[in-house]
Amino acid sequence: MNLGYLLKNLKLNITGSRGFDEAIITSGGVSVKEINPRSMESKIVKGLYFAGEVIDVDGYSGGYNLSVAFSTGHAAGSSC
Known about the structure:
The protein is mainly α. Helix content is 32%, strand content 5%. It has helices at 3-8, 20-23, 64-79, and strands at 25-26, 59-60. Strands 1-2 form a two-stranded antiparallel sheet. The termini are far apart.
């Protein structure tokens, strides 16, 4: 079997959630200390740009994380 088939046919049984407080935040990703905030370019690897939820910025869903995604996406796209 190939990986594509396995991933498409993976079945998971959801048994519950971790609650509303944990469901509304995004966390983790590339440290903001490693990114030039004007261009969103990596300070470590030239020519590598980051945007949105790959960046370690915590934000509530429903606007704040979208704001970060749009603004960092614009900065990265304009810079590369």
